[in-house]
Design brief:
Distance between the termini: 23 Å
Helix content: 25-40%
CATH architecture of the largest domain: Alpha-Beta Barrel
InterPro entries: Aldolase_TIM, Cyclophilin-like_dom_sf, GH, MupG, MupG_C, MupG_N
Number of helices: 10
Strand content: 15-25%
Pfam families: MupG_C (PF05913), MupG_N (PF19200)
Number of strands: 15
Domain 6-phospho-N-acetylmuramidase C-terminal: 234-343
CATH topology of the largest domain: TIM Barrel
Organism: Haloplasma contractile SSD-17B
CATH class of the largest domain: Alpha Beta
Low-confidence stretches: none
CATH superfamily of the largest domain: Aldolase class I
Protein name: Outer surface protein
């Protein structure tokens, strides 16, 4: 599920443009909005802007996750608006968090990036209503401060053991929020990564709701994110020169990873060529992340496609037809029996 972020009280985000962005998202089918009520750079009139934004989102029946401190919660009556989630940040004690989870109608959101096992267990023992609680990760404006993907994934596995909904952020490559303008990802490697790869990595790490942290994401980015299928892993591949039309057609097919997976490569179970001939070419060393297709010298295996997991020697029976890009985590996510396909990269700016 995809959401957007809207920022109030900042000169670069006039209210009319915020409202237009919200209406665009609504038109595209997006129903989830994140906004923050305690960014240090906000000007004094941010409360008025917040009220206007909440009035609009209530009118459009959109779900708002409001990041707020205790001080802000005392300045606005949220009962007048369609606020679905309160992301509790500074100033809330464990007792207040437990009370809100049991006595309020809001979903209570905790900071997934800084919450640890000890504190969560303590909150549960104090009576936390876990069914009213979700977790959302931070976004990180400063380069090289975002989370490591493996650490991020490990945290999420623990949260899922408790049945928690998990939320995280991806950056826009079109409109980046100031004052740093380096993107607002949760995971550091996503700061400049292809959008479809970033989303898939979050989905594979058990993220339920993905917000564009930056504003304003372009309409094209929003549409691409909404339409991305998450039931099949899509790898980026850069094709070798002069592959045959038959090899190209094999690459473009939907594949399924074999149930009896080899330790050396992922094997497609979907295609072998019996009525056409694949001539040997580019039978070079098979580097990790190479995409290969068996040629006519492999007899009945001709046409079988593999993704190489470990460096292997050249084989005159195997053509190297491409190389995967940005795949080190997604390839591990491709389990036996799972479908996969390829998005062909033609230009460097597609990376």
């Amino acid at each position: 599920m995809i959401g957007i972020s809207v920022y109030i009280g900042l000169e670069e985000y006039p209210q009319k443009e915020n409202e237009a962005y919200i209406r665009l998202a609504h038109r595209l089918g997006i129903r989830h909005i994140f906004t923050s009520a305690h960014i240090p750079e906000m000007h004094a009139s941010y409360i008025d802007e917040l009220k206007e934004i909440l009035t609009l989102t209530t009118e459009l029946n959109m779900y708002v996750s409001l990041d707020l401190s205790k001080e802000v919660s005392n300045r606005i009556d949220l009962n007048n608006y369609n606020v679905h989630t309160l992301r509790l940040d500074y100033g809330f004690s464990n007792g207040e968090i437990v009370e809100l989870s049991t006595c309020s109608t809001y979903n209570i959101e905790l900071n997934a990036s800084t919450l640890n096992e000890q504190r969560l267990i303590s909150l549960i023992k104090m009576g936390l209503n876990i069914e009213q609680v979700s977790v959302s990760h931070n976004y990180y404006p400063k380069r090289y401060t975002g989370l490591d993907y493996k650490t991020f994934n490990q945290k999420n596995e623990y949260y899922k053991q408790h049945g928690l909904t998990i939320k995280a952020f991806i950056p826009s490559q079109f409109g980046k929020r100031g004052p740093i303008y380096e993107g607002l990802p949760t995971v550091e490697r996503h700061r400049s990564l292809n959008l479809t790869i970033a989303i898939q990595e979050l989905v594979q790490a058990n993220v339920d709701l993905i917000y564009f942290g930056d504003a304003y994401a372009s309409e094209q980015e929003l549409i691409e994110a909404i339409n991305l299928r998450t039931d099949v892993i899509a790898f980026q591949v850069k094709l070798a020169d002069k592959i045959s039309d038959l090899e190209y057609s094999i690459v473009k097919q939907r594949h399924v990873n074999r149930l009896d997976e080899s330790q050396y490569f992922k094997r497609s179970s979907r295609y072998r060529c019996t009525d056409q001939t694949i001539e040997p070419h580019n039978t070079t060393e098979r580097k990790q992340y190479s995409v290969t297709i068996d040629n006519k010298h492999y007899k009945r295996y001709q046409g079988e496609l593999q993704i190489i997991k470990k460096d292997l020697e050249a084989d005159p029976k195997v053509n190297v037809v491409g190389t995967l890009l940005n795949c080190e985590y997604l390839l591990d996510c491709l389990k036996p029996g799972m479908p996969f396909e390829f998005n062909i990269v033609k230009k460097d700016d597609d990376l």
